[in-house]
Every structure is written in C-alpha cells, then in structure tokens.
Amino acid sequence: MFHTMRIARKYMTLYGIFIKNCLIAQMEFRGNFIMSLLVESVYLLAKLLYVLVVFRTDLHVNGIPPEGLLLFIGMHTVATGMYVGLFFTNFMKIPEYIKDGSLDLMLTKPVSLQFMASLRYVDLALPIPDIVVGFVMISIGWNAMDIPLTFLHFAGFVLLLVVSIVITYCLMIIPALLSFWFVQTGSLFEMAHSVWDANNFPMAIYPAWIRRIGTFVVPLFLITNFGPMFLLGQLSWLYAAMALIGSLLLFVAIRLLWKQAVKGYSSASS
Amino acid sequence: MNRRRLYKAIFSMGIQHSMEYRFHFFLSLLGAAFPILVQYFIWTAVYRYSGQAALFSYSYGQIILYTILAGLVSKLIATQFEQQIADDIKNGGLNKYLIKPVSYFGYRLVSFLGQKVIYYGITALLLIGIIWISSARQLLDVQAVRLTLFAFTLWGALLLNFLIVYCICAIAFYLHEISYFFVITSLLINILSGGMFPLEIFGESVVKALQFTPFPYTIYFPVNVLSGKTEMAAMYQGLLVQGGWILLFFWISRLTWRASMKKYSAVGG
C-alpha cells in the first residue's frame, strides 16, 4: 500500500513538472499561444451553431427544453477541451515516435512508457475557450433546470466528469495504438474526430441500436451523456458507479493492449 | 516545351497526385459521412418535435438533401495547397517557378483541377445515386436545365474557391507562421458558404448580407440550384453573379500576388 502511494506520488510530481515545462515552452512563443486560442475559438464557434439551431427551433429532446440541452452541449464542449488539452498533442505524436524510432529513447527511461508517450505534453492554450464556454453553458443549464446545488449533485457530476476523462483517454488513444501495426493512421484520427462530434447532443436523438452500441460496445455516449443525465435525475447512483467501474475496466483493457502493442515494436528506423 | 504540353503534364501530375492517396480519399469520404449522419439525426429530432412542415423555409426532406449535398460539395471544392504555397514562399521553393517560363498561378490552378478530376467523377456517381433516390421519393423534381446549370455552377464554385484561397495565400508573404491562419479561414469560409448548415439558420438579414459576398456561391448556391429551392430567374442571375465574383477574384489575385512578389526575398530554395 505504502509502495503504491509512493509510486502515485512520484508520477503526480512528474506530471506537475510536465505541466510546468509545457507552460514555459508555450510562454516562449506567445504569438503561437494566442493563435491556438483563436483556432480553438473558431472551432467552438462552429459548435455553437448547433446551439443556435436548438434555440431557434425550440428543440425539446425527451421533454428536455433548449436550456436543459445546454447541459449536454456544455459537457461535450468541456470534454473536448479536456481532450485537446491533455491528450490530443500526445496521441498525434505517438505514430511519429514509432515511425522515427524516438520511442527507443523513451523505453530506456525509468518511468512507464505509456505514461511518458501518452501524457508528456499538455496544451494550455487550446482548452481555455472550450472549458470556459462549456462550464458557462453547464451553469446556465443547471440554473434553468432548477437543479439544486447540493454536495451530492456536485460530487456525482465531478465523478462522472472523471469517468468521462478516463473514457476519452481510452477511446481516443486507439488510433494511436493502431499505429504500432499500421504506418499511416492519419485518416483513422480523422474518423475518430468525426465520431467524437456525435456526442454533441443527448443520445436520445439516436435510434435504440446506436444508443446500445455507443453505451456498451464503444462507450462513447458515456463521455457526455451520463453527467447531465445524472443532474436531471435520469441516472441513479448505481449506474454512476457502474460507469466508474466500466471506465476502469476499459482502462485496464487499453493498458493490456498497449503492452501487447509494445511487444511487437521493432524499432524499425532508428 | 510548348504551353499546351506543359500544362497537360502538370494536369496529369495532379491526377497522379490524387490517385496516390486514394485510400485516404475513400476514408475521408467515409469520415465526411459521420457529420452528415449526426446532422441527419439532429434534424430528424428537430422536425419531429416541432411538428411543422417547414423550418427555415426547408421541408424535412429538403433539409436532409441540403445536408448531404452540402457535405459532398464542400469536400469536392476543398483545397489542400495552402500549406504548400506557404512553404514555397517561406523556404524559397517559389524561386524555381520564377526563373522558368511557367506561371505559378497557372501551375497551381491546373494541378488543382487535375487533382479534382477523379473526385469530380466519384462525386458525380454519388450524386447520380442521391438524385435517383430523392426523385424516387419525390423529394426532388429532376429537371434537365437544373442539372446542367448545377454542373456549370459546380465548376464555377471550384474555381471561385480556388481563387479565394489563392488570394488568402498571398498573406504568407507577410506572415511566417501561417498554418493556424489557414485553419481559421477555411473553417470560417465553410460556415459562411453554407457548408455546415443552410444559411437561413442565421436569419434573413444575414442571408441577405451574405448575398453580397462571394461565399454563398461556392456551396449554398450550387446546392440550392439542384435541390430546386432557387427560382429559375434567380438561378441565371446567380450564375452571372458567380461569374462576376470569379472575374473579380481573378483580378484581385493577380493584383495581390504582383504586389506581394515585390516583397519576396527568395530565402533558401
């Protein structure tokens, strides 16, 4: 137990150093920092067009009014912010590490290879617009739907946000993992990103078979649906706990897949 | 080498280039299908809840048809040469065109058209399928004149989009790190052209204001010519306006490039 705590502390300290290092690097090129902010804001603007459609047509999904739908769109925006901030840069780099052999150097370091390759970089500019606007939308929805601001509501929501980050990591790393076997994975990422946007709305708009696949086979809908559903009283604590266990199991599966993939790594070009 | 043979060679190079990444192209077509599917489900939910026959002046069938066609057309007219031009300017690759008897504009245009030929063919096949299905479901009243004008205006859209992007590329003479800039402009142009949603969702006054810009003539207009939303008279008028924009942007592109070229310092190469 004590040993595990020590390892966890080591990795947390290391992650803190990564963040500090990335901040220093990004502050060196302030123009790029501002451009990143702008790029993500334009993407956000494109997403907000969906909000425009929702309000202009007064769309109700399963009895949830437009203001309530903001909870879902807001959660999707926050999840997107988390993805582009914490994982995106790393996952795009993994195929390059494999291609140019820089994974070799990482293999020699006294830390977990998966930790090093998939969490080394943190982008602090990209997520700002998403996270700010996403939480504003969630607050508007929270307020408009008269959801009480109790500790239990808050704790449940935070728990499901953590679940959503874990699942995001597990699902979006798959194209990068496949690059251990295939050389060209650019279009796989492109596909993954277009599937990602299916989460912009409550899963209730999709037919039952898509909902089932998106919940049990590829748990994409868990990322943005469970948090708002919990707040709206459509999801019990039991399901929230099951989502947590499911996400941890998924993480274990991805961990095993990673180990399997690294076994076949032949360090081709270095 | 005479001019015709030269441009024929560039054209065929463009075709070969597009065939080089055909697997990527098919996957990206598949990738384009996802946003269309998501929008299909959203619009279905919107129309089911509202219970109205038409929203933003589109019936349910029309809006689905618009979403599919706009997705296809925006894929077709998309340009991928911005970064190459920026690199040519930044790293001095432009030098080899300046000292040879070939126009850089001509090279880019002919190579772009060459790259699009196969795409145009595949899109045409997909369109035939879509037109056939939607006319069988009585969503679309197929008229020969509309089909012909659509084919014309689609080429016009391709050319106009090329010229707009080519003008924007001239900014690379002034800014060194420009890849972010292209991401922003291409997304904004796509939204303003009606590539994501029909322009009507922005409200009537915005649609009217956008009519005075070139953007609707790249996606919104061609799609509505085919879908039958544009009136006959407005169709011919639109075609003329599109032609006018093409001429104007051709002139602007010459002007901006001539002025910017004076700034070019031919670093590297």
From TrEMBL, chain A:
Membrane-traversing stretches: 33-56, 68-89, 124-145, 151-183, 213-231, 237-258
Record key words, sorted: Membrane, Transmembrane, Transmembrane helix
InterPro entries named among the record's database cross-references = ABC-2_transporter-like
Q: Which PANTHER family match?
A: SLR0610 PROTEIN, SLR0610 PROTEIN-RELATED
The protein, known as: ABC-2 type transport system permease protein
| Species this protein is from | Paenibacillus shirakamiensis
UniProtKB/TrEMBL annotation, chain B:
Please provide the record's keywords in A-Z order. Answer: Membrane, Transmembrane, Transmembrane helix
Pfam families linked to this entry: ABC2_membrane_6
Keyword Transmembrane in the entry? The reply is yes
The UniProt record lists the keyword Transmembrane: yes
InterPro entries from the entry?
ABC-2_transporter-like (IPR010390)
The residue range of the signal peptide is none
What is the designated name of this protein? ABC-2 type transport system permease protein
Q: Which organism is it from?
A: Paenibacillus shirakamiensis
